[in-house]
Amino acid sequence: MEYRITTPLDKSVVEKLTAGDYVWISGVIYTARDAAHKRMQEALDRGERLPVDWKDNIIYYMGPSPAREGRVIGSAGPTTSSRMDPYTPRLLDMGLGGMIGKGKRSAQVSEAIVRNGAVYFAAVGGAGALLSKQIKKAEVVAYGDLGTEAIRRLEVEDFPVIVVIDKDGNDLYKNNGKI
Fold it and tell me: How far apart are CA 113 and CA 121, in angstroms?
């Protein structure tokens, strides 16, 4: 199936999504990579609030290249999701609605996706220049000192992704693309 969805993620929308579905996302998504995830984990361990309320939001595992003149962002391709796996179950338990990246996820992340009715999307690796055209606005909202790994708020329009792990735990990668 194919869907056009808007953020924040509504649970009724996530309920409809199945591994293998093509989805075009419009609205606000956030970026966060390894260093930002580590810093958020440390903040939570100290009992501090996070700089973004992740409830029903989507994290895109991406660190952009510098923007060329006239562009809001540089190349914006996904990074390997498994690097965030140690931190992801905790964020999902806090209400994170979905993630965008590339590659397989751990059993712990899959279990947390099911437990929380979330979704894991994949964006096409190597297509960062094309994906950046779907980003209409980008601003650093936290951890600016991390450079490309800062948390950014992106406004996207028809951002193309594929559902890899759905709310029931169906995993496109484990089923060789057959669901």
Answer: 11
Q: What is the DSSP letter of 7?
A: S
Q: CA quadruple 123, 140, 117, 43: dihedral positive or negative?
A: positive
Q: Is 150 helix (H, G, I), strand (E, B) or coil?
A: coil
Q: Which amino acid is at 124?
A: V
CA dihedral 88, 163, 128, 36 (to 10 degrees): -10
Whole-number pLDDT of residue 27? 98
Q: Which two tokens stand for residue 151?
A: 């948390």
Low-confidence ranges of the chain (pLDDT < 50): 179
Q: Torsions phi, psi of 92, nearest 5?
A: -65, -40
Does residue 166 contact residue 26 with C-beta atoms inside 8 Å? no
Contacts of 48 (CB under 8 A, 6+ apart): none
| CA 145 vs CA 22, 35, 43, 61, 162: distances in Å | 35, 11, 16, 18, 32
Q: pTM of this prediction?
A: 0.94
What residues does 102 pair with on adjacent strands? 80
Q: Please give the pLDDT value at position 26.
A: 98
